[in-house]
């Protein structure tokens, strides 16, 4: 080793000649260009530049260095990994050193919550966190299945002066049977430390546990191990949550105020500098930064010369009014790095201007905050007004929309915050299944894009635009069969023939959910497309939305067996769907309304001027929604559908609208669907059942309560062929069958 | 190597330097931009560009005259410094600089004397504990334990390092850079079409640990021909040329050319995490399969590696084949394209690596002017074909603000007044704006105008230009604009109100009444304009159309090329231009709304005298061809639907319909 090094240094003497030449004043004239250099110099800059060398320089890697790098003689990779996990503990924990991947299945990620113990005080916020986990698809009640463990002890508030503070956590945690020095544990925390220094210590030894913590500083944050979560109030809703306040994309996007802030000023101690200096940029016109000295009992003791003036100004403005009427909202650090202002601004579409040096922004591992916020530097406070003034209106328009997307995707409820936290850890554990940045930062967001479905963005209905790609012009029809095949004039056979004639039909899947055995093959009509008959799993309703592997096209045409459709109608709806691949596009539509008297959601199948659902007895949608229906929705809702043998279409509409925030699309049809439906006398027809309607009403309310909100959206329009019922020769019309009765 | 008492690196010429110079502290792991970087030096500047100073070249030797580095200035570091000095980051004024780059080459730690290099750094006149200094290092550490960051003590200096691990990388402070491969310059690998290659997986590295080679060989046994497992050629004399050859069972392959024959290429950690092979693999458009636990991928702060590579934990090497097989072929193709693009943009030269590093630091200092995800990650072909609608949020605005009708008029006062009277009946009309395009004549006196319930404003223009109808007047306070000609009197109040309701559901589109189509004329080999009653629509006329006010800005300030002038000069096709613009930025077709009635003169512009004649149509065809060439593509999208009220023409009592008076002639 030593010898080698010495050799290298001796060898270097020659190499340095080049430099010596230069240093002893032999400068290369600019005209003598080095032929080895590829980068062209613009040549019009007069000032002194990096010199050129005529003599060839040495490469930085000698050609044989890869040989010397061979480390076979040294540590074995396995040993090296073991060494890492021995060395990198505590503040240097990383997934590679402090997390046991072997507890997680090959592609499953399960979370266990310690059972709650009697007498253990748990705050409402922590209760919400725990129930969100228990209601999620990651939850397991079997610790043997689990790869991540969550405590039944409330660790949210670790401020010793707080009434919520839980004592003796240290012993309680050590007594947990599965604690294992915190390995694979996740600890939630909103507040740590207390006056005067507000350290980030939780007051007990977290061992090798991961932290999901608010107000984390970059110094203490362990990248790809901890998760930075937002500070949320105890009133933050458990599920659903309010939508963002942005109602219009007004242009120019400027609001009454450019930049606002209203909050406490601490006068002394940690975090007081920035807020104390805000008055320098306050101009009471477009930049309104208000502070009050009034907080705590003894604020008068620290009172400074500005306090009275500041306090008076503070009382003149209404916070809500400012929030809704400002383009930017200042989010300066408080005592701790994070503050409630952040989420408030986000929801209000008031672009956060973050002044909190060293704050690891919420979910920074996956969220690209530069697309939704302005990250300032406390040291440059005085530049902030000019900075925000230079931000172009296009950028404001897009920042503002992004605040709304992020708010609704990840922050509007405790459940979303918790699920986002779990999904981030999921993506680390199942690395190959991790979402790409696009999935996190584009509509509809990471919680609605399940990577197990596909790693390819083009397989989802959401990214055709951003990727510049198109869908395949084919669809798969899935016919839900519940009555036995007895006659050749049965509706299902007509339907099959009509669908098969469509030029866009790639294949037809008959889902045999009838309790009779499968009909023999020759009973099915001969069609040009392949007909695949699948025996339904348990013959339950939800099986019609299973993501069958045999569905190979993006588009699924979901059909009831008694649906009456012509080939033309199918073709037209499919063409429309291609323009709206993220929505349900179909024929019979239904509507919901808020029943004021009964204080609940109502369902109507009457002919109305608007609709919010399209029945999946005849509708196109993207096959991803089959996957989402099966894997995203909780077992409770799916089993309700199965037990009632009803409402599956309502649930699908809820799901798709929750994802898209948009209504489905109704296309025109011959006016016979409804009549046929109602005239059905077949004993299997569920539409004939008088309970049917009441059940659907109940379903609506059950679904709305699980979603925490009503996701359905009304539409007042229907899409018809361009020349539909126009007074031109029918021969000019492409979809003439649709208007022929 | 024992050199006796402490040595000090000394400057050989010119400068006064403290002696013995102190040794900087090891890098501080807690350093972040807000703690170890002096942002005041960068200051506020309108270009949002940091200024970078490069120290003049000096020769550093210890007190017995031995240089601190065995190579001195390397070719690569020289290229890097030249590139910076040629870029607009560069300043030769040390007092204006925000970032300082030493001319001491630390790219390869192997060739450095660590302690002496550190001392040399400390002698730099502006060193100041390494504040705002940037060091470039590609090969950190040395035997036996190969640290993952440069071992040279460097105080607070930022490190652009190749081969960081998660434990040494200071997120948001350091920059992870590639290990430059000299083959980038030496070998020309033309870009290949993405698609399946001869081999599925290729391993071409020579210094693979035995443990991993055994596992790779096992995979090879299981999967046969799909895998190609190369190693050094044992029969060649070990010289420079042998670095460009690889062998498998006596068969010789050219490296890196062979990389182009595989869909996936293994990039395993060596002693170091960063491998120059990664660059070769990307250059070949082969999808790297990176197995280097805890490795911080190059430029991971801005690059979405998920789209260009597969990262597999080292432990899962045996599952590699299964994992890769599960990736859909279309995704593999996109990853191949993406890999090549990463090489072209960020790996191919020291210039690319250096300037990317500076851009990343620049983005941290001016985050509000930072490059977007799309800018960093979309290859040109995607940038070209993808759309990122400026109105991307799914938002159905409330009905209440209503819309502003903008009527462009010249002097057809009578007809104008009729239009105003008709539009005033629409419930959601918020304001009426008359754009008076006649400079020779004043608009009628105020008392003569129809009395309507909403504000009516008249704006006079300076020139009689068609583009004036799309000017983003401050008077337009609503999002929704109804552009309407002064002779469109045939639309009913229900039809207009319904149009507005449809616009609310599609606020990012043009929503209009008469639809038009573009067609490819195979005989002439060019686009043709079609106004006959067709089953398809790709444009709506703006003689009566709703759209978002944002598009007025786009039309007025961002219309590509000379389209705007062309429209004004020809007094035609402003509507086609608007359709192009909206379709191009949103990737969406317009929405045509119900009525199919004969507009009096739908192809007429607001100016009298033009008529629906053949020449007019020819001109509109020309417009389409002209605009398509300016846009470089045909952005218009063809659809076969139009929007009708839900109960349109249904057998249902008219009085119960929201919009009964629609579509009657």
TrEMBL record, chain A:
It is found in: Endoplasmic reticulum membrane. Residues 31-56 are annotated as: Disordered. It is a single-pass type II membrane protein. Belongs to the glycosyltransferase 47 family. GO terms for cellular component: endoplasmic reticulum membrane; Golgi apparatus. It catalyses: 3-O-{alpha-D-GlcNAc-[(1->4)-beta-D-GlcA-(1->4)-alpha-D-GlcNAc](n)-(1->4)-beta-D-GlcA-(1->3)-beta-D-Gal-(1->3)-beta-D-Gal-(1->4)-beta-D-Xyl}-L-seryl-[protein] + UDP-alpha-D-glucuronate = 3-O-{[(1->4)-beta-D-GlcA-(1->4)-alpha-D-GlcNAc](n+1)-(1->4)-beta-D-GlcA-(1->3)-beta-D-Gal-(1->3)-beta-D-Gal-(1->4)-beta-D-Xyl}-L-seryl-[protein] + UDP + H(+); 3-O-{[(1->4)-beta-D-GlcA-(1->4)-alpha-D-GlcNAc](n)-(1->4)-beta-D-GlcA-(1->3)-beta-D-Gal-(1->3)-beta-D-Gal-(1->4)-beta-D-Xyl}-L-seryl-[protein] + UDP-N-acetyl-alpha-D-glucosamine = 3-O-{alpha-D-GlcNAc-[(1->4)-beta-D-GlcA-(1->4)-alpha-D-GlcNAc](n)-(1->4)-beta-D-GlcA-(1->3)-beta-D-Gal-(1->3)-beta-D-Gal-(1->4)-beta-D-Xyl}-L-seryl-[protein] + UDP + H(+). Keywords: Disulfide bond, Endoplasmic reticulum, Glycoprotein, Glycosyltransferase, Manganese, Membrane, Metal-binding, Signal-anchor, Transferase, Transmembrane, Transmembrane helix. Its cofactor is Mn(2+). This is Exostosin GT47 domain-containing protein. Signal peptide: none annotated. The keyword Nucleotide-binding does not apply. Residues 475-724 form the Glycosyl transferase domain. Pathway: Protein modification; protein glycosylation. GO terms for molecular function: glucuronosyl-N-acetylglucosaminyl-proteoglycan 4-alpha-N-acetylglucosaminyltransferase activity; metal ion binding; N-acetylglucosaminyl-proteoglycan 4-beta-glucuronosyltransferase activity. Its main location: endoplasmic reticulum. Gene3D superfamilies: Spore Coat Polysaccharide Biosynthesis Protein SpsA, Chain A (3.90.550.10). Residues 107-389 form the Exostosin GT47 domain. It comes from the Eukaryota. GO terms for biological process: heparan sulfate proteoglycan biosynthetic process; ossification. The gene is ext1a.
TrEMBL record, chain B:
It is found in: Endoplasmic reticulum membrane; Golgi apparatus, cis-Golgi network membrane. It catalyses: 3-O-{[(1->4)-beta-D-GlcA-(1->4)-alpha-D-GlcNAc](n)-(1->4)-beta-D-GlcA-(1->3)-beta-D-Gal-(1->3)-beta-D-Gal-(1->4)-beta-D-Xyl}-L-seryl-[protein] + UDP-N-acetyl-alpha-D-glucosamine = 3-O-{alpha-D-GlcNAc-[(1->4)-beta-D-GlcA-(1->4)-alpha-D-GlcNAc](n)-(1->4)-beta-D-GlcA-(1->3)-beta-D-Gal-(1->3)-beta-D-Gal-(1->4)-beta-D-Xyl}-L-seryl-[protein] + UDP + H(+). It is an enzyme of class 2 (transferase). Pathway: Protein modification; protein glycosylation. Its EC number is 2.4.1.224. Keywords: Coiled coil, Disulfide bond, Endoplasmic reticulum, Glycoprotein, Glycosyltransferase, Golgi apparatus, Manganese, Membrane, Metal-binding, Signal-anchor, Transferase, Transmembrane, Transmembrane helix. Pfam families: Exostosin_GT47, Glyco_transf_64. GO terms for biological process: heparan sulfate proteoglycan biosynthetic process. One of its GO terms (molecular function) is glucuronosyl-N-acetylglucosaminyl-proteoglycan 4-alpha-N-acetylglucosaminyltransferase activity. Residues 47-327 form the Exostosin GT47 domain. GO terms for cellular component: endoplasmic reticulum membrane; Golgi apparatus. It is a single-pass type II membrane protein. It comes from the Eukaryota. The keyword Iron does not apply. Glycosyltransferase forming with EXT1 the heterodimeric heparan sulfate polymerase which catalyzes the elongation of the heparan sulfate glycan backbone. Glycan backbone extension consists in the alternating transfer of (1->4)-beta-D-GlcA and (1->4)-alpha-D-GlcNAc residues from their respective UDP-sugar donors. Part of the heparan sulfate polymerase, a dimeric complex composed of EXT1 and EXT2. Could also form homooligomeric complexes. Interacts with NDST1. Interacts with GALNT5. Belongs to the glycosyltransferase 47 family. This is Exostosin-2. It comes from Electrophorus electricus (Electric eel). The gene is EXT2.
């Amino acid at each position: 080793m030593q010898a080698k090094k010495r050799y290298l240094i001796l060898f270097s003497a020659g190499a340095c000649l080049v430099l010596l030449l230069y240093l002893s004043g032999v400068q290369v004239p600019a005209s003598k260009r080095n032929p080895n250099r590829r980068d062209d110099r613009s040549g019009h800059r007069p000032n002194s530049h990096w010199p050129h060398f005529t003599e060839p320089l040495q490469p930085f890697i000698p050609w044989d260095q890869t040989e010397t790098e061979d480390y076979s003689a040294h540590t074995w990779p396995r040993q090296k990994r073991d060494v890492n996990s021995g060395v990198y503990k505590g503040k240097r924990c990383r997934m590679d050193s402090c997390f046991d991947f072997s507890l997680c299945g090959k592609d499953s990620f399960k979370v266990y919550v310690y059972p709650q113990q009697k007498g253990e005080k748990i705050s409402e916020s922590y209760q919400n966190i725990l129930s969100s986990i228990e209601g999620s698809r990651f939850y397991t009640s079997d610790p043997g299945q689990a790869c991540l463990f969550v405590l039944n002890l409330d660790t949210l508030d670790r401020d010793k002066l707080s009434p919520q503070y839980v004592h003796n956590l240290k012993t309680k945690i050590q007594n947990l049977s599965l604690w294992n020095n915190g390995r694979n544990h996740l600890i939630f925390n909103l507040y740590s430390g207390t006056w005067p220094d507000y350290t980030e210590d939780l007051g007990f030894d977290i061992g090798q546990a991961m932290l999901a913590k608010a107000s984390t500083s970059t110094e203490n944050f362990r990248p790809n191990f901890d998760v930075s979560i937002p500070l949320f109030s105890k009133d933050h809703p458990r599920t659903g949550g309010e939508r963002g306040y942005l109602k219009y994309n007004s242009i120019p996007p400027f609001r009454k105020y450019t930049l606002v802030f209203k909050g406490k000023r601490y006068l002394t101690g940690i975090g007081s500098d920035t807020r104390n200096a805000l008055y320098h940029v306050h101009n009471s016109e477009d930049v309104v930064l208000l502070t009050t000295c009034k907080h705590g009992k003894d604020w008068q003791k620290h009172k400074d010369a500005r306090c009275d003036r500041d306090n008076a100004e503070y009382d003149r403005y209404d916070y809500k009014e400012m929030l809704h009427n400002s383009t930017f909202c200042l989010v300066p650090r408080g005592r701790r790095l994070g503050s409630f202002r952040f989420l408030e601004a986000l929801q209000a579409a008031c672009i956060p201007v973050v002044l909190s040096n060293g704050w690891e922004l919420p979910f920074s591992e996956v969220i690209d905050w530069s697309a939704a916020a302005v990250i300032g530097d406390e040291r440059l406070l005085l530049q902030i007004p000019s900075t925000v003034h230079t931000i172009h209106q296009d950028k404001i328009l897009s920042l503002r929309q992004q605040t709304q997307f992020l708010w609704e995707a990840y922050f509007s409820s405790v459940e979303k915050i918790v699920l986002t936290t779990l999904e981030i850890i999921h993506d680390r554990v199942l690395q190959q299944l991790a979402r790409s940045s696009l999935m996190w930062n584009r509509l509809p967001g990471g919680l609605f894009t399940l990577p197990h479905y596909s790693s390819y963005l083009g397989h989802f209905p959401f990214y055709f635009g951003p990727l510049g790609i198109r869908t395949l012009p084919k669809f798969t029809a899935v016919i839900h069969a519940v009555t036995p095949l007895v006659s050749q004039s049965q509706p299902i056979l007509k339907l099959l023939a009509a669908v098969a004639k469509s030029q866009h039909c790639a294949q037809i899947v008959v889902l045999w959910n009838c309790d009779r055995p499968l009909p023999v093959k020759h009973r099915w009509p001969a069609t040009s497309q392949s007909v695949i008959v699948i025996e339904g799993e348990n013959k339950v309703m939800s099986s019609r939305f299973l993501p069958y592997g045999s569905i190979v096209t993006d588009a699924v045409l979901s059909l009831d067996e008694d649906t009456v459709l012509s080939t033309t109608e199918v073709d037209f709806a499919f063409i429309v769907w291609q323009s709206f691949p993220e929505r349900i596009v179909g024929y019979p539509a239904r509507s919901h309304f808020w029943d004021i008297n009964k204080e609940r959601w109502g369902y109507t199948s009457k002919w109305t001027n608007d609709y919010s659902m399209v029945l999946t007895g005849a509708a196109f949608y993207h096959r991803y929604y089959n996957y989402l229906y099966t894997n995203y929705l909780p077992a409770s809702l799916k089993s309700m559908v199965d037990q009632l043998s009803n409402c599956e279409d309502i649930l699908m509409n809820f799901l798709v609208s929750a994802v898209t925030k948009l209504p489905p699309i109704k296309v025109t049809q011959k006016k016979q669907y409804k009549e046929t439906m109602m005239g059905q006398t077949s004993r299997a027809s569920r539409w004939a059942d008088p309970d049917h309607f009441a059940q659907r009403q109940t379903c609506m309310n059950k679904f709305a309560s699980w979603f925490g909100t009503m996701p359905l959206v009304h539409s007042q329009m229907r899409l018809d062929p361009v020349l539909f019922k126009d007074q031109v020769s029918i021969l000019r019309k492409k979809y003439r069958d649709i208007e022929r009765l | 190597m024992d050199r006796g008492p402490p040595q000090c690196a000394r400057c050989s010429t010119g400068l006064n330097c403290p002696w013995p110079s102190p040794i900087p502290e090891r890098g501080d792991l807690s350093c972040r931009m807000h703690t170890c970087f002096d942002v005041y030096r960068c200051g506020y500047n309108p270009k949002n560009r940091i200024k970078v100073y490069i120290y003049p070249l000096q020769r550093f030797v210890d007190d017995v005259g031995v240089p601190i580095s065995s190579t001195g200035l390397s070719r690569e570091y020289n290229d890097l410094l030249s590139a910076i000095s040629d870029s607009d980051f560069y300043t030769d004024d040390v007092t204006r600089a925000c970032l300082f780059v030493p001319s001491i080459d630390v790219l390869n730690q192997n060739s450095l004397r660590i302690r002496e290099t550190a001392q040399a750094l400390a002698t730099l006149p502006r060193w100041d504990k390494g504040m705002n200094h940037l060091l470039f290092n590609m090969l950190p550490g040395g035997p036996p334990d190969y640290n993952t960051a440069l071992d040279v003590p460097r105080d607070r200096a930022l490190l652009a390092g190749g081969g960081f691990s998660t434990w040494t990388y200071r997120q948001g402070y350091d920059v992870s850079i590639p290990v430059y491969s000299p083959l980038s310059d030496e070998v020309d690998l033309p870009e290949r079409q993405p698609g399946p290659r001869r081999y599925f997986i290729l391993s071409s590295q020579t210094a693979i640990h035995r443990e991993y080679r055994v596992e790779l060989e096992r995979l090879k046994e299981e999967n046969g021909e799909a895998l190609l497992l190369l190693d050094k050629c044992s029969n060649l004399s070990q010289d420079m040329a042998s670095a460009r050859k690889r062998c498998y069972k006596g068969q010789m392959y050219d490296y890196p050319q062979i990389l182009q024959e595989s869909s996936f290429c293994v990039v395993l950690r060596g002693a170091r995490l960063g491998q120059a092979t990664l660059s070769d693999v990307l250059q070949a458009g082969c999808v790297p399969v990176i197995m280097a636990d805890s490795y911080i991928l190059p430029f991971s702060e801005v690059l979405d590696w998920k789209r260009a590579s597969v990262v597999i934990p080292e432990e899962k090497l045996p599952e590699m084949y299964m994992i890769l097989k599960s990736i859909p072929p279309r995704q593999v193709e996109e990853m191949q394209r993406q890999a090549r693009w990463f090489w072209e943009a960020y790996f191919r030269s020291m210039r690319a690596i250096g300037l990317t590093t500076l851009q990343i630091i620049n983005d941290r200092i001016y985050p509000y002017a930072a490059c977007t995800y799309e800018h960093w990650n979309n290859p040109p072909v995607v940038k070209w074909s993808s759309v990122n609608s400026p109105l991307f949020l799914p938002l159905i605005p409330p009905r209440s603000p209503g819309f502003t009708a903008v009527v462009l008029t010249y002097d057809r006062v009578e007809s104008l007044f009729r239009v105003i009277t008709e539009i005033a009946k629409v419930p959601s009309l918020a304001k009426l704006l008359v754009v008076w395009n006649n400079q020779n004549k004043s608009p009628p006196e105020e008392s003569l105008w129809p009395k309507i319930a909403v504000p009516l404003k008249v704006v006079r223009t300076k020139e009689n230009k068609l583009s004036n109808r799309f000017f983003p007047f401050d008077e337009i306070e609503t999002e929704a604009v109804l552009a309407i000609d002064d002779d469109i009197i045939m639309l009913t109040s229900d039809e207009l109100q319904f149009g507005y309701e449809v616009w609310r559901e599609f606020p990012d589109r043009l929503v209009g009444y008469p639809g038009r189509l573009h067609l490819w004329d195979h005989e002439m080999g060019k686009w043709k304009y079609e106004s006959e009653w067709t089953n398809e629509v790709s444009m709506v006329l703006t003689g009566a159309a709703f759209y978002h006010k944002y598009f007025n800005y786009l039309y007025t300030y961002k219309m590509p090329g000379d389209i705007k002038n062309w429209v004004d000069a020809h007094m035609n096709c402003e509507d086609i231009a608007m359709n192009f613009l909206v379709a191009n930025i949103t990737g969406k077709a317009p929405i045509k709304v119900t009525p199919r009635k004969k507009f009096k003169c739908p192809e007429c512009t607001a100016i009298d005298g033009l008529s629906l004649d053949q020449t007019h149509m020819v001109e509109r065809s020309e417009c389409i061809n002209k605009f398509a060439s300016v846009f470089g593509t045909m952005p218009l999208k063809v659809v076969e639907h139009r929007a009708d009220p839900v109960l349109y023409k249904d057998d249902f009592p008219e009085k119960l319909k929201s919009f009964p008076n629609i579509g009657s002639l």
